[in-house]
Amino acid sequence: MKTVGASVIAAAAVGAGMRAAAPAASAATAGAAASYNGVCGSGYKVVNSMPVGSTGTVYLTYNASNGKNCTVTVRNSTGSPTYMVAYVRNVDTNEDQYDEGEYRSYAGPVYVAARGACVEWGGVIGSQQAWNFGSNCGTLAARTPQKDWFAGER
User: Which ranges of the chain would DSSP assign to H, the alpha helix?
Assistant: First the structure.
């Protein structure tokens, strides 16, 4: 797990997204969808998810008792190690965390305190990626959230 001050991965994903954009719904039609595996821990409930092409799913979870969001990227099927990323960022504080590496099953979990704030989150599996920017805002958020997302090849 890595913590960075700027959204380097997200910025790279946005740049890649300008070259190739595929709608998430059509990309998810092949294969069985990955299930959330519970690795964020006790008290975390799935609040959102996106398909990562046809290769897996990225899950955003939230724990109301501690105010933290957690992201995990899960492959549809375990296999040989593949480049994967799980990413989450508190939009208000710019605190972000990501986990990247060669994994057989999942990347993450990564956590950020975000009670009452909007979050950016996403994941990568091989050449497929999915990103959601400024969504899942807490009830205390003072502004209307931006709800842009991207899914496609990186």
Answer: 8-17, 24-27
